[in-house]
């Protein structure tokens, strides 16, 4: 299941990146395009991170990744999703969700660091 979710994230990141580069360019201003690019960059980074987590869980099956995976996935939805929504011209108030998504992604990586440190002992 984790590999499938990671692969879907990566496919969506490619599709959304292509849409931003080709379909959005003609109707968005520079600020909106910047939001779109930031969302796409973070989507790719964290989707690749989720894939790495999945591989890591196969190499070290006793390392718990579920909490990290879920936090990062929800963080992607909140952070990238809110930027995509704003880039499409929807209410900027949704940008208030962006830092929550960032905090969830950070929390996911910190939980992984904590679990990895505990696992090493």
TrEMBL record:
It is a multi-pass membrane protein. It comes from Acinetobacter defluvii. Keywords: Membrane, Transmembrane, Transmembrane helix. It comes from the Bacteria. The keyword rRNA-binding does not apply. Its main location: membrane. The keyword S-adenosyl-L-methionine does not apply. The chain crosses the membrane at residues 42-60, 67-87, 93-117. It is found in: Membrane. GO terms for cellular component: membrane. Belongs to the UPF0382 family. This is DUF423 domain-containing protein.
């Amino acid at each position: 299941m984790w590999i499938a979710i990671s692969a879907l994230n990566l496919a969506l990141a490619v599709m959304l990146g292509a849409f931003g580069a080709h379909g959005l360019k003609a109707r968005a201003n520079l600020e909106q395009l910047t939001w779109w690019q930031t969302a796409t960059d973070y989507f790719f980074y964290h989707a690749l991170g989720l894939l790495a987590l999945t591989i890591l869980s196969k190499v070290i099956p006793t390392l718990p990744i579920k909490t990290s995976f879920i936090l990062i996935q929800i963080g992607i939805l909140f952070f990238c999703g809110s930027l995509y929504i704003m880039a499409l011209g929807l209410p900027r108030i949704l940008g208030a969700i962006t830092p929550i998504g960032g905090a969830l992604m950070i929390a996911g990586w910190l939980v992984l660091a904590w679990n990895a440190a505990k696992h090493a002992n």
